[in-house]
Amino acid sequence: MDSDEFRKQGHALVDWIAEYWRDLETRPVTPTVRPGDIAGALPSAPPRLGEPFEHIMEDFERIIMPGMSHWNHPGWLGYFPSSSSAPAVLGDMLTTSLAAVCMSWNTSPAATELEQVVVRWMRDLLGLPTDFTGVIQDTASSSTLVAFLTARNRAGSRQADRLTAYWSEEAHASVGKAARLAGFADHRCRVIPTDDNYAMDPELLAAVVEADREQDLVPGIIVGTMGTTASTACDPLRAVGEVARKFGAWYHVDAAYGGMLAMLPEIRPLLDGVELADSMVTNPHKLLLTANNCSIYFVRDVDALTRTFSTSPDYLRAAHDGEAVNFRDWGIPLGRRFNALRLWVVLRSNGVEQLREMLRAHLKLAQELVGWVKAVPGWELMAPVPMGLVCLRHVPPELAGDEVALARHNAAILERVNATGKVFLSHAMLGERYVIRVAIGSMRTERAHVDLAWRLLSERRVNPR
Amino acid sequence: MDSDEFRKQGHALVDWIAEYWRDLETRPVTPTVRPGDIAGALPSAPPRLGEPFEHIMEDFERIIMPGMSHWNHPGWLGYFPSSSSAPAVLGDMLTTSLAAVCMSWNTSPAATELEQVVVRWMRDLLGLPTDFTGVIQDTASSSTLVAFLTARNRAGSRQADRLTAYWSEEAHASVGKAARLAGFADHRCRVIPTDDNYAMDPELLAAVVEADREQDLVPGIIVGTMGTTASTACDPLRAVGEVARKFGAWYHVDAAYGGMLAMLPEIRPLLDGVELADSMVTNPHKLLLTANNCSIYFVRDVDALTRTFSTSPDYLRAAHDGEAVNFRDWGIPLGRRFNALRLWVVLRSNGVEQLREMLRAHLKLAQELVGWVKAVPGWELMAPVPMGLVCLRHVPPELAGDEVALARHNAAILERVNATGKVFLSHAMLGERYVIRVAIGSMRTERAHVDLAWRLLSERRVNPR
Hints:
The structure is a homodimer. The first copy, chain A, is α/β, with parallel strands linked by helices. The first copy, chain A, folds into 3 domains: 3-68, dopa decarboxylase, N-terminal domain, CATH 1.20.1340; 93-350, Aspartate Aminotransferase, domain 2, CATH 3.40.640; 352-459, Alpha-Beta Complex (Aspartate Aminotransferase, domain 1), CATH 3.90.1150.10. Helices cover 41% and strands 12% of the residues of chain A. Chain A has helices spanning 3-22, 37-40, 53-64, 86-98, 109-125, 140-155, 173-181, 202-214, 237-247, 284-287, 302-309, 340-350, 352-375, 403-419, 447-459; strands at 133-137, 163-168, 189-192, 218-225, 250-254, 279-282, 295-299, 379-381, 389-394, 426-430, 433-439. The first copy, chain A, has a 7-stranded mixed beta sheet with strand order 1-7-6-5-4-2-3, sandwiched between helices. A 4-stranded antiparallel beta sheet of chain A has the order 8-9-11-10. The longest helix of chain A has 24 residues, at 352-375. The interface between A and B is large, with 142 and 140 residues.
């Protein structure tokens, strides 16, 4: 594709994106395809000769788009969002056109230094300790694995068999996965029960850790969560951290969803105690309009991190290695995109106050929904709502107390609502209780969409599409 | 940023990218900044209020660009390339504007199925076994770690302490890193010597594995390389694979750089024996114009893979789980971008024949350079040139045999050439010998740039910039 053709197609695509965003509401949020439908509509081999971009876009519209879930639809209220935005797309256009591999300082000095600066901005915005240093990873899963691997490496190989790990029963699935991948044996992992608010019970934690110490085991890592996936519960980070400190365990805070909200002074107290953490992860790609992927891993002991991940083969040695940071030594992948660029453009284009306003507006909508739910008999709020997620269910009197029947009943409601294609909600289990999740935080979501979701849920009279 | 402003800025940015690519040659390939220069020019906090995109672009040009290494400069002949291209940027614009999280089939059915289709296209293009299934990971480092973790998990925890791993002394640093992160103890890792062509000696390998078996150790994984980073050496994959099969070790082939070249029938024999592999990694983002990151991990035993990486928390369970593939279970990260889109656009926009032509043209340039080096006394080719990389050095008669002095001499040449800002070359150690690497494969590199690099190297009369 020559330069003129790129300009022509690029301009058309910018317009396409603007129109896609503008008309998103006219599309169903989620598709109705069955497994195999899309693959079956695609040829079994790539073309021998190049095709005009118009043909590719036609196929994109005709074959791919009908099979997409639209994460940026204003009715996206299911999983925590991944909001794209104009600044994110513009920033990424720069990133992809440069295609710089930002593994080492010398392979793109500005990429490394912009990353250092932007994560410092984020650290300060969230009120994190000034001895935290950040690095952008792809996802919270990877960041949490980095924490587990660092904790294991810091403990040394001689203790490996005796290392234990702790997290709450409401922790994200990526925590257990990280433990497994980092070689923590199942019988060395402790899942700590939660209280009525789905937060870790720190006294139970202390008792379990104590018992392990008495067995001559070595507490390796404790994970606290600020904003669980099922209900945005927040573990008491300070109390959990004190246990970690007392027993010398690595303390990792999973604030993948909730962390960004800590830029609001009224939410920041939920992060209290993060000062005791060794590491923390939070994902700008969820609430901060960067589009996926952009996850920040904050860490205090950078030496422990780089001792775990560094390699320095001859072919990557460079003149400034001693004076500069090589982010290849801060995580799993060697090759890295110019990760900071998109976040930088988003922060500057919006400004902090506008971002705060948007976050606040969504929290306020969540509280409005709480009010609506409380006002209608038969509907129950299933967990506190400290952030943007409302967990609810319908309890017809005849099913009260029958958890299996209630799960079936609410799953049917969820299916009916999602089948309208107007909104997308998801579900979770809180203990044995099936709950419907309404997660408010997608950039384009306004009051009307939450209102519509609630009407679809509560009116129980909806025409399927 | 409203819709009109996005269109305006997007159009301007498309033009900026077209001009950036067009004028790349007028920029120095690598910057002259010192550590801290860029960070020092940036403010210590993000703005309170949003800024016009023009201001951000001004700062990008004024502060960031002078600190970038231009991986897409036609004189980029150092590290293996990461070529961006018009189709890659267009494809990524779609990806970022959708911002779909492609963790599960149901979170974006078309993304999962397009990925399945495109990796199948690539499998067939490279002549890989039809029982290989592919998944896109970010980098070869991550793919290789996935192989090590799968091998460890397949062996089971009872054998963990006795698991051994094998790779050649020319294997990429990410292999040793993967072993370490996957919990293979240092004293269980064997680095196998290479022959005069820097390829693994399979008889030595067999002897080492045999000796380990006699010690009641368990051969866990063997890594063969097709196209090493230092010299593009190719291990004898069939012979190495036969050892792996005989002893029941997982066989992983690292074809991160070389794999894409296997779409040329004349190169495909270098992959002979991949039929014996359990897994293979190759990176379209190096030679195939997709921009980073795009790495394909091929695997035969998908069950072994998903047993290692799957999680199925309640909140991610979906109706079609039994019939569809959930790529979240195929690697480390839960969240994934719509990875296949860019590769799909690149393949269709170029067509296979045009891609083959480009690859061939670069291989031919490498052979031309070989001819030039051979023709000038005092210059030595340091390794065979099966692909697009030429390793060379200058040996003045008075330094012959003095490796330390030769390293210093050639490092000075390299520094002098790179300081011109016209081309960027890199170095490697082959055993104790310092070599200058000329890696030809960046999309915009033509004969004139290789010629210039050679003149700068050999004429030894160049004005520094």
